[in-house]
Design a protein that fits this description.
Bound molecules: tetrahydrodeoxyuridine
Order of helices and strands: HEEHEHEEH
Distance between the termini: 45 Å
Radius of gyration: 14 Å
Shape: globular
Number of domains: 1
Structural class: alpha+beta
Number of strands: 5
Largest sheet: 5 strands, mixed
Mean pLDDT: 97
Number of helices: 4
Low-confidence stretches: none
CATH architecture: 3-Layer(aba) Sandwich
């Protein structure tokens, strides 16, 4: 199953009764295994989580800490881009050159690297004095 297929399939399970905006994400880990996530909203709105966060959490729960590719899909008129927090989450587990494909259910795709999505990323080097 391709990353697109995996992300599109898990998107169907999104819990998005407040925004009605379902998002699916799939990441390929260093082992080659694919992990998926969908957005999970909450009536206490700030408690909702993004699809990318779910996919990354699934990867880490499975014992993997590096991802080599990511795919995000939504039913939007233009490709959905990861929010700021998810860009930082992706950067935690991916090299700057890792490709993130952003897509619409209609078939439009756009790609960017993790480094392009979050220039000037806060990383461990900032903490080493
Ligand atoms: N959302 C994601 O899951 N990923 C993104 O890349 C953009 C936004 C979710 C969060 C919320 O449940 C809904 O989309 C509307 O913001």
């Amino acid at each position: 199953m391709s990353l697109r297929e995996a992300a599109a399939a898990v998107r169907e399970n999104a819990h998005a009764p407040y925004s009605n905006f379902k998002v699916g994400a799939a990441v390929r880990a260093a082992s080659g295994a694919v992990y998926v996530g969908c957005n999970v909203e909450n009536v206490a709105y700030p408690e909702g989580t993004c699809a990318e966060a779910g996919a990354i959490a699934a990867m880490v729960a499975a014992g993997e800490t590096r991802l080599t590719e990511a795919y995000v899909i939504a039913g939007s008129p233009m490709p959905v881009t990861p929010c700021g927090g998810c860009r930082q989450k992706l950067a935690e587990f991916a090299d700057a050159g890792v490709r993130v494909t952003m897509a619409t259910t209609g078939g439009v795709e756009q790609a960017a690297t993790v480094g392009e999505l979050l220039p000037g990323v806060f990383n461990v080097a900032h903490m080493n004095s």
